[in-house]
Amino acid sequence: MALNRKIAYIDLTTGDIQVKPIPLEIRRRFLGGRGLDAYLLYNHTSQGVDPLGPDNVLLISGGLLTATCASATTRTHVMAKSALTGFLGSTNMGGFFAPELAWAGFHHLVIRGKAAKPVYLFIHDGEIEIRDAKNIWGKSATETQWAIQEELADPEVKSLVIGPAGENLVRFANVRTGIKNSGGRTGMGCIMGSKNLKAVAARGTMDIKIARPVEALEYNKRFIDQITSSKVNQTQGTLGTPFIWGATNSWGGVRSRNFQYNQCEYADDIEPEHLDEIATATMGPYHMASCYACQVHCRARYKLPSGPYAGKYDEGPEYTSLGAFGAEPDCRNAETVLTGNYLVNQYGLDNLETGSMISWAMELFELGILTKEQTGGLDLRFGNDEALIEMIHRICYRKGWLGDTLADGGIPASEKIGKNSFDYLIQVKGMNNLHSDERATPALALNIATASRGSDHLRSRPAIDLYHLPEPVLRKIYSSPVPYDGPLSSEHTAYEGKPWQVFWQENCYMAVDCLGICKYHTVFLGATHPNFEDWAKVVFYNTGLELSPVQIWEIAERCNMIERLFNLREGLTRNDPRKGDTLSHRYFDEPCLRGAPGVVGIKIDKDKFVQMLDEFYSHKGLDQNGIPKPETLKRLGLEGEPSRQL
Amino acid sequence: MPKNSKVLKVDYEKCTGCRLCELVCSVKHDHVSNPTRSRIRVIKWESEGIYVPVSCQQCEDAPCVIGCPAKALSRNADMARVDVDYEKCIGCRTCVSVCPFGAMHFVSTDRKVVKCDLCDGEPQCVRFCDVNAVLFVEPRDLGMQKGREAARRLQAADRKASSLLEVP
């Protein structure tokens, strides 16, 4: 049964390991995955805990439905207090790790303390071993995984690892599994590194009993047919996430030159069709690959066709790499993008944060805020491909003054660089934004301003807002499972009704993150994709747990609220440009210079943004300072937290 | 007329490595999710991006049938498959060792061998594979399908080669 998967408490300082069941009552309140991780983080850390100290807890989990008979139940979630932001650290990745962890008997790992020397965990069929990692410390993210398979003499072992960047405590080092699956955001690799934990390896052969196997199988088939029949999935399954970048770039919704422009011109070399040609030429016509039990197959397999790593096998590149190593630094060459992508995959660096930090430094250099002495002689101008690649190396190994400075993340770096460098940083709560430009899309702007892990598009983005769907269609989606009769607008530049859409998406994404399902299998890119009603059935067929769509919605609300409680405890405010639910001033002050006619000249209206935020807070049951009202905490059953029940 | 004459055809180039076939196989047969119970397995070379689904070929003159000392394995002509008679099976795993494809598996929790039974004519791995990496086809068509694909490549190569000779 999925419900009998265990939670393990591992203390790396003492070597103590405790295994406990997860009570059904806790499942009914937090389900699993990210939601239950948030509960555990809030309960197992105290205010102001040092992110890099032994008292920070690292949580690794699969969702309630991981590896059950539901599509794309592949996601691994990792949480801790972030050393990049000082707020909630949370990241989520596909691949094959979480299913293996579930077959090995576990859904949640709570890791605290710090090992005296580098170690890795090996989890197999209910057993947990702490093993010496001296032979793998220093290895790249992929080499680490192959070395563990070799050491354990089992090619089916799946590992969650850090690369050299995590060892070097780069604040935005990520955790990785497989060739390219990355838990990229908020620097969870840095937390693993701080604990001397190089990897968590899993191998499982334990049954996960399906409560109603016939219904689960048939419902899964229905899901799959519905998803694979949608045009958006067919495109994504052919071109991967670069298709989103290409489409968005065409109307002016991406960032270029560190937010100076909202469109990257003359970018044919990095357009999805060209990348598809490279994958076809190097890996054949059927080069798309999937995560566990997923039919979206959204990532390409390819070999680097040129450059210093020519011939190396890699996967991707994703939307983010096109932004990070293409549009933002204005290096519009496939070779540069693929080289950058390969390097961050090996080093275990978040591509998004890495590209953003370098592009920010490029703007500072062009403005004279950074000097050539500070860049160590590098001519760090936009469009300098070699300087970009060199900076990736320097950040990973903290080489030179600038490499070391940028490795500490945006806000600490801005303090070290000084002058008005902070004004050019495109961040929220200390984390850089995706390489999309939200000035023409107020709903998306509200999403990044309020996301619980800092600027982020995967917490509450109503991406279907860009489709201009007819209002009745929007209403059908957004007035279920709880009623909504307020305004809704099909116009993406409008402000009306957007707070509700962001609130709805926030709960929708939390629900899938608790269940362990990929967001491409819900209302993210596909307006007709599964949502609450479907999950209620899928949960019942697979686990036997009876939950109504409204109950799943309430669980999602509760989990989002406990994440907010954590952030409030760590100093979240409403308006602080470094610690608040707000945007970089550039969203309000600098209009879009390029793109479609309705986009040129547009920027976020500050007054309307404030109104949106008020409305969003009110949907969430927060007061005007963003603090939950007592009745909201009571309604969600959170007034007694931390309750230390688990 | 036999009930079934079709065979599984694996087109490994099309496999995206998702292992959904393994999942639905174990759910269909054992009502659990557990790839170590699956009759079909996706063998991977992750570092090279190579994925190959492997399943029983239902050989006409099967080494497992020949090798089984308990005569527990037999050819079922009506279903075009090789069957295990668990009444006779002694669990010696000879079939596992002699299968040239590694398509016989020993499930250690149940202490018994398992193999593909074509889901009695409705293979779930085929039903769920939306990229058609696993197909259920009449064997007489297999050669022609491969031949057609090869002919297309040859024809394209020939056209490309001849275009190089054209005087501009």
Structure description:
The complex is a heterodimer of chains A (646) and B (168). In chain A, a hairpin with a 2-residue loop joins β17 and β18 (431-432). Helices cover 40% and strands 12% of the residues of chain A. Chain A is an alpha+beta fold and 646 residues long. A 6-stranded mixed beta sheet of chain A has the order 2-1-6-3-4-5, with helices on both faces. In chain A, strands 8-7-12-9 form a 4-stranded mixed beta sheet. In chain A, strands 14-15-16 form a 3-stranded antiparallel beta sheet. Chain A folds into 3 domains: 2-203, Aldehyde ferredoxin oxidoreductase, N-terminal domain (Aldehyde Ferredoxin Oxidoreductase,  A, domain 1); 230-420, Aldehyde Ferredoxin Oxidoreductase Protein, subunit A, domain 2; 442-635, Aldehyde Ferredoxin Oxidoreductase Protein, subunit A, domain 3. Chain B has helices at 20-30, 63-67, 94-98, 124-128, 139-165; strands at residues 7-10, 32-33, 41-45, 50-54, 73-76, 81-84, 105-107, 112-114, 134-137. Helix content of chain B is 32%, strand content 20%. Chain B has a two-stranded antiparallel ribbon. Chain B has a two-stranded antiparallel sheet with strand order 3-4. In chain B, strands 5-6 form a two-stranded antiparallel ribbon. Chain B is globular. Chain B is α+β, with helices and mostly antiparallel strands. In chain B, β5 and β6 (81-84) form a beta hairpin. The model of chain B has no long low-confidence stretch (mean pLDDT 94). The longest helix of chain B is centred in the C-terminal third of the chain and has 27 residues, at 139-165. Chain B has 2 domains: 7-137, Alpha-Beta Plaits, CATH 3.30.70.20; 140-168. The chains are: A alpha+beta (646), B alpha+beta (168). Chain A binds chain B through residues 67-69, 71, 96, 103, 142, 145-146, 155, 178-179, 205-210, 213, 216-217, 220-221, 224, 228, 283-286, 288-295, 297, 301, 313, 315, and chain B through 13-20, 23-24, 27-28, 30-37, 44, 46-49, 51, 108-109, 124, 127-128, 130-131. β13 of chain A pairs antiparallel with β2 (32-33) of chain B.
